[in-house]
């Protein structure tokens, strides 16, 4: 059998060094890795503030977390964090230390959230969705 005729317009792939392919592989892995969070960490994705009412600001934030087994997204020291899932399940919000160091934490009566009271008397109320 005669070999199949080759196309005259066909060009062979250009030869690239192994260093080039290693650089392509490393850069693609870096792009994939940078989109992922390290285990046990959180980042704020969105933050909206509404100051339309006098003496009152309503803030809503969305966080993205990569929590370890037995943890869930919560709040520690007024920042998103991974906390023990038991705290959220039992609604013992103050156990996750959601307030800043100089603030006091109190549960809301219906356990739907907590308040952080600053030394000057200002109160910040947080409700969990």
Topology:
Elements: H1 18-34, E1 41-50, E2 58-66, E3 71-76, E4 79-84, H2 85-90, E5 104-107, E6 113-117, E7 123-127
Antiparallel strand pairs: 1-2, 3-4, 5-6, 6-7
Overview of the structural elements:
With 129 residues, the chain is an alpha+beta fold. It has a domain of 63 residues. It is built from two helices and seven strands, in the order αββββαβββ. The strands form three sheets. It has a three-stranded antiparallel β-sheet with strand order 5-6-7, with no helix packed on it. β6 and β7 form a beta hairpin. The model has no long low-confidence stretch (mean pLDDT 80). Keywords: Signal. InterPro entries: Chemokine-like_TAFA, TAFA-5. GO terms for molecular function: G protein-coupled receptor binding; receptor ligand activity. One of its GO terms (biological process) is G protein-coupled receptor signaling pathway.
């Amino acid at each position: 059998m005669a070999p199949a005729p080759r196309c005259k317009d066909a060009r062979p792939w250009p030869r690239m060094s192994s260093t080039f392919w290693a650089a392509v592989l490393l850069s693609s892995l870096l792009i994939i890795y940078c989109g992922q969070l390290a285990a046990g960490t959180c980042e704020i994705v969105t933050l909206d503030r509404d100051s339309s009412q006098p003496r009152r600001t309503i803030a809503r934030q969305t966080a993205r977390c990569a929590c370890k087994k037995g943890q869930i997204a919560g709040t520690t020291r007024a920042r998103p964090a991974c906390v023990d899932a038991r705290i959220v399940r039992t609604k013992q919000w103050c156990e996750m230390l959601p307030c800043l160091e100089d603030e006091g934490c109190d549960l809301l009566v219906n356990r739907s959230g907590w308040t952080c009271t600053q030394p000057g008397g200002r109160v910040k109320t947080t409700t969990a969705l």
